[in-house]
Design brief:
The complex is a heterodimer of chains A (about 240) and B (about 50).
Chain A (H helix, E strand, L loop, with lengths): L6 H33 L13 H27 L3 H33 L7 H22 L3 H15 L2 H11 L19 H44 L1
Chain B lengths: L1 H5 L4 H41 L1
Chain lengths: ~240, ~50
Amino acid sequence: MFELANPKRFMDVSRLVLPWLAAAAAILVPVGLYLALFVVPPERQQGDTVRIMFLHVPAAWVAMMAYALMAVCSFLGLVNRHPVADVAAREAAPLGALFTVLALITGSLWGRPMWGAWWVWDARLTSFLLLLFLYLGYIALWNAIEDETRAARAAAILAIVGAVNLPVIKFSVDWWNTLHQGESIFRTGGPTIASVFLWPLFIMAGGYTALFATLWVIRIRTAILQRTVRARLGAETGR
Amino acid sequence: MMRFLAMGGYAGFVWPAYGISLAGVAVAVVLTLRSYARAKAMSAEIESGKGT
């Protein structure tokens, strides 16, 4: 993994990996959508609103995964000073924020018919909203500090400290009484969801993950190219 | 077809969820690819300039 911290090495490896990631996203997302809309039956209690689950849950998983990746890359950037790590952390943030917004909106659209409320200040929803604020704060920090090294350091500290929110989100439904349903997939004793719902959910989650990975890699490549262009232009004007 | 679109009476919740998700993802894909294409073009321009 540390080899990827070299920008040139990253560009070489990512050029090979990118088509596979894009192909996985291009196949899994449409298949997942097809299963979610046309194959999965209405759920006994939730009726057709269960179809929102196939968007809401994968978006929430990717939002949390993106933050975890951002925190790990921030740590590597802060401690090991890997040149690509800070860029990778920065480029994960807007995508993570997007998936967080999608999870919140789809959750709200699912909650209204099931709970009778668009929003409740329970532990799961509030900690997830905090995740969005952490993303926005991280992006704002990067933009507020002109010196890139200082910006990376400040943003990295925020990302690492904010990672404390991830277990809070995950276990909020166990630690507190929440309106949000309890853990029903990754739990001891196995999933409580019927396989007719579970497999399309995993396919959709795989599709969203591949989509995130594709966009993330492209964004990192873009940032490296932009940095190279800036460096070349700087060298030419300084000559 | 109408039964499918009605989503058991929950169309007002299911379709906006799908519409917003697809729109959000589409915007992210377009913006990402556009800025990647721009960066590649600039890089290629500089490379070709260096060669002359």
